[in-house]
Amino acid sequence: MHILELIKKNEYETAYDLKKLKQFSEPKIYTGKGDLSKRWYVYFSYRNPATGKLERQPPIYGEANKLKNKTDRLSYLSTIRKVLHRMLNEGYSPFEDAKETDKRLAEESKAASTKKQSNKRVQSQHQSYTVKQAMEFALAQKQPSWSKKTASTFTGHYNKFMQWLEANKLSSLDISELKNVM
Fold it and tell me: Can you state the percent helix, strand and coil of the chain, rounding each to 5?
């Protein structure tokens, strides 16, 4: 695996990124503590675009409360929960009309496919980098999106790593050869 791919996949970078707030909470099933005389439903919260706060959405009952045993109700609501979670992950919003959402998702899909085509063109113009050049390039790409503290921390790690590369005479290797050395 290339060092650039490792940098892109580094989970640490996004694990503490509080700028990207969750748009919705995980849909959950309310079972009334197993009591069949109570109403069972699926509930979740979604971030209101106007206020920026998570707001509880109306519960989804479906036909669950017509079912007479716990297993059937739970199975029915589990299916609703899974479908709802998939829809939310795909970008559906309870604050938008379904037609608006479909239009927005179609535009995002079109933009994503255009970006993929652009990336393919860039990859076809592949340039050979040394390990040092690749690391400098990756740092320059990521640094603008970091806060001061993150930039300071990662720059320190970067400098230590570059010293290690120099000490082991790996900085002048072609980046594609690095995986073979390790």
Answer: 60, 10, 35
pTM of the model: 0.51
Q: What is the mean pLDDT of the segment spanning 124-137?
A: 74
Residue 131: strand, helix, or coil: helix
Contact call for residues 9 and 27 (beta carbons, < 8 A): no
CB 77: neighbour CB atoms within 10 A?
24
Domain residue limits, the chain: 3-19+129-181, 28-90
46, β-bridge pairs: 24, 55
What one-letter code names the amino acid at 124? S
pLDDT at 14: 54
Which pLDDT score, from 0 to 100, does residue 176 have? 74
